[in-house]
Specification:
With 214 residues, the protein is of the alpha+beta class. 28% of the residues lie in helices and 29% in strands. It has four helices and ten strands, in the order αβαββββββαβββα.
Length: 214
């Protein structure tokens, strides 16, 4: 038979253990919630054929970017002149597009754009902006904007064979006909899955897609 002191101590120990277990359970629950709240979902752009990209776009054109505004609209808005149109625009027309940063002023791009229903208005009272404009959107996580420039990356023995006007297409996500060669080849890993194709060949393909969709 225990002493009176012992009979008082044992319940106190049990209560302390219970409180400790409750504290541990509360901490574990908080950690679980914190882990759930910090989880992020990384979405890959869809893999699509160039033909389907063409069909999904409202405008397909070669453009030259003449200016850009990444300050007053809340998103990047670029003004461009249409150099050659395959769908939904006219040569010489001025268009506005975005929303991705990084397009270079004065550079040439092949754009596949979707129309945005509502016009976009500046969020600033500054007079240095485009005003309220009709706006078209680069889609497929930005891969429907393809830069065009003169590059010496193609196969060939001479400089004339290796250097040509090219278009940078991210062929891991936008698949081209197997008959169209890329540089590097599709067997080689490249940053962002992007490769160069000869501009003349891609323009010819886009013209064919335009004729087949008339």
């Amino acid at each position: 038979m225990g002493t009176l002191e012992g009979r008082h101590i044992r319940p106190m120990i049990s209560a302390a253990r219970a409180l400790l277990l409750l504290g541990v359970a509360a901490i574990l629950a908080q950690l679980a919630v914190a882990q759930q709240s910090t989880k992020t979902t990384i979405e890959e752009p869809s893999v699509i054929t160039l033909a389907n990209l063409y069909k999904q776009a409202d405008t397909v054109a070669i453009v030259r970017v003449v200016s850009g505004d990444a300050e007053t609209y809340g998103i990047a808005v670029y003004k461009a002149e249409v150099v050659k149109s395959f769908k939904g625009a006219a040569a010489g027309e001025k268009i506005f597009f975005g929303p991705y940063v990084g397009e270079s002023i004065g550079s040439e791009y092949i754009l596949f754009l979707r129309n945005v229903t509502q016009s976009i208005a500046p969020g600033s009272t500054s007079s240095i902006n485009y005003g309220t404009v009709h706006y078209s959107e680069v889609f497929d996580e930005g891969y429907s904007s393809m830069t065009s420039s003169y590059e010496c990356v193609f196969s060939g023995k001479t400089i004339n064979e290796r250097c040509d006007y090219g278009v940078r297409v991210c062929t891991d996500y936008i698949t081209l006909p197997k008959s169209m060669p890329t540089s590097p080849s599709s067997m080689e890993d490249t940053p962002f899955g992007c490769r160069w194709v000869r501009k003349e060949a891609l323009v010819s393909l886009l013209a064919t897609l335009g004729d087949s969709n008339k």
